[in-house]
Design goal:
This protein has 551 residues and is α/β, with parallel strands linked by helices. It has 4 domains: 302 residues, Rossmann fold (3-Layer(aba) Sandwich), CATH 3.40.50.720; 128 residues, Sandwich (Jelly Rolls); 67 residues, no CATH class; 31 residues. It contains 13 helices and 29 strands. A 7-stranded parallel β-sheet has the order 3-2-1-4-5-7-11, sandwiched between helices. A 5-stranded antiparallel β-sheet has the order 15-23-20-25-18, with no helix packed on it. Strand 21 and strand 22 form a beta hairpin. Helix 8 packs across helix 10. It is elongated, with a radius of gyration of 32 Å.
Length: 551
């Protein structure tokens, strides 16, 4: 049966992740996202997932009535998240706003939905912030003890749902942590610690970090909302949604584990209480399983936010990461430097050339699924920069910076995806996104195909690493007779084989061209011949070399 599913606060921290989960279901159900904000890129993504987005306010009673009356499921995530943590941070105006959105907005939704609608609501562990002594494994039946406006509004919401007569599920969330590509809550302790740790900072542990916290991974929170929507047997229930119970100091130590440069500083500053923890035994009995943990979450956030090594290369090639291999084949992942909005699928025949242009503003990102190319590139801003070549094979991602001329020489029939951020209208070629710049002609294409070496001359390894490139150079002693005579240029580049440690040039020039007019040869000198013969005998003896060794 096709459902109408509404997510309020769909552009928020949890809402963003829940939308991602529903992106696989929106083709079979009507999924409506409501938020009082409008974030262009997020809204565009939501609509690309075949979801509907409406910018609206749950305080608008008529708006709520018109949109919620025929809903089958409501994930009610809307609310004020910029909330005071202490009494000194509170002010009357802000407290009233928290109450109004939380209590009046929820009332409007409960009045609008029909009797069959299932409403899933996130409460918070903070409803127990009034507990003065350390208390662990608090169950769902424990009397709430709210203090500040946020916890008060959530406690009222719980009562509203229980008294509504509607089909509800309340999820009391622990402190939610985790990385999000779209929206982040840095004010949460774990996320804040990871941010500080990513910058090699100092983590201050008030009261020695003895406070205990109930924590829960962001993605598991979103998964649990979907789980509750699917479980028709779960009705009018409240669950504690937490996974880990740790002290603040234990979280800090996990941060230090993943970045040893971070400093921990314990202080004697007082804290309101030494914390409490919620029991998740009731939730686990439903069959819900957690898939993520604190160690994974902390590691990911620190890595994502750490100072990244800036890639200065004009062009770089990456292999896929996080490989998964089984009897069916292989999966590899490529993380992009930026979002893309257009993907071009391109097929090219062996022996052809593409590109010979540059992009003034856009990065060139190509993921090769089949074949092989020799990529030629050159910085056009700095006139003295050399022209450089690099091999790109199937399964690799090539990224070229803006204002770098590039050409692709196809050594095999090749298929690749062109991953674009921006526009690539064919009518605008040479005008806006792409500027023609021919620097690899037909003769150079033939020269590269004929002379390029893709395998190690010693062991046959195809994965050679570039050591240095000196650009295109003429052959030694290949002197011209006349000033206007043409001279052939070849890439002078050194590659290294990680398997046999052999260093070698990227091209092999025809020996006739190399040595037809080459006046000096080592074989004409008896002294030189004797030197190499004696050296070979000496090194063979010292290194215990035999016929199986490669030199």
């Amino acid at each position: 049966m096709k459902k109408k599913i509404i997510i309020t606060g769909g552009l928020g921290y949890i809402g963003t992740e829940l939308c991602k989960i529903y992106s696989g279901y929106s083709w079979h159900h009507k999924v409506l996202i409501i938020d009082n904000r409008f974030i262009s890129e997020r809204v565009n993504q939501i609509r690309n997932w075949n979801m509907e987005f409406i910018q609206g306010d749950i305080l608008d009673k008529d708006f709520v009535k018109n949109n919620f009356k025929d809903a089958d499921v409501v994930h009610h995530l809307a609310g004020v998240t910029d909330v005071p943590r202490t009494k000194t941070e509170s002010n009357k105006l802000h407290d009233e706003k928290i109450h109004q959105v939380g209590v009046i907005g929820t009332k409007n939704i409960l009045e609008a939905i029909n009797e069959k609608c299932k409403i899933i609501f996130p409460s918070t562990h903070v409803v127990f912030e009034g507990i003065n002594k350390v208390k662990t494994d608090i169950g769902e039946d424990e009397t709430t003890q709210p203090v500040l406006s946020y916890s008060n509004s959530k406690a009222i919401n719980e009562d509203q749902l229980k008294e509504s007569g509607k089909n509800y599920v309340i999820l009391r969330l622990g402190s939610v942590y985790g990385y999000s590509t779209d929206t982040m809550r840095i004010d949460i302790m774990t996320n804040h610690f990871c941010k500080v740790a990513s910058q090699n900072g100092t983590l201050k542990l008030f009261a020695g970090g003895r406070q205990i916290k109930s924590l829960v991974p962001l993605i598991d929170v979103a998964r649990c909302f979907k789980f509750m929507e699917e479980k028709d047997s779960i009705q009018s229930q409240i669950y504690n949604l937490t996974k880990d119970t740790l002290t603040v100091k234990e979280v800090a130590n996990i941060c230090k584990k993943h970045n040893p440069k971070v400093q921990l500083k314990e202080t004697n500053d007082e804290v309101p209480n030494l914390g409490f923890s919620l029991s998740n035994k009731k939730l686990l009995k439903t069959g819900f399983k957690f898939l993520y943990n604190i160690d994974q979450g902390v590691k990911e956030m620190i890595q994502k936010w750490s100072k990244q090594t800036f890639i200065k290369e004009l062009e770089y090639v990456r292999d896929g990461e996080d490989l998964y291999v089984d009897q069916r084949g292989m999966i590899s992942n490529h993380e992009l430097t930026e979002p893309v909005n257009l993907i071009g699928l391109i097929h090219s025949k062996k022996g052809t050339v593409r590109a010979n242009h540059y992009h003034p503003q856009q990065e060139q990102k190509c993921l090769f699924t089949k074949g092989q190319i020799i990529e030629v590139y050159q910085d056009i801003i700095n006139s003295n920069e050399p022209k450089i070549t690099k091999v790109v094979n199937a399964g690799q991602l090539s990224v070229i910076k803006p204002n770098v001329a590039h050409a692709m020489v196809f050594t095999k029939d090749t298929t690749f995806l062109n991953l674009v951020r921006g526009e690539r209208d064919h009518d605008n070629y040479g005008i806006t996104h792409t500027i023609k710049h021919t620097f690899v002609d037909e003769n150079e294409k033939k020269l590269l195909i004929q002379s390029y070496k893709f395998e190690c001359r010693s062991c046959g390894n195809e994965n050679l690493k570039r050591v240095v490139s000196l650009g295109y150079q003429p052959l030694a002693n290949n002197l011209l007779n006349k000033a206007n005579d043409k001279c052939e240029f070849y890439p002078l580049e050194m590659n290294f084989c990680e398997k046999c440690y052999n260093c070698q040039l990227s091209v092999s020039v025809d020996p006739k061209k190399m040595f037809a007019n080459y006046l000096y040869t080592s074989s004409t000198s008896k002294v030189t011949r004797d030197h190499f013969l004696n050296a070979a005998k000496k090194y063979s003896k010292q290194l215990n070399l035999n016929k199986k060794n490669h030199i």
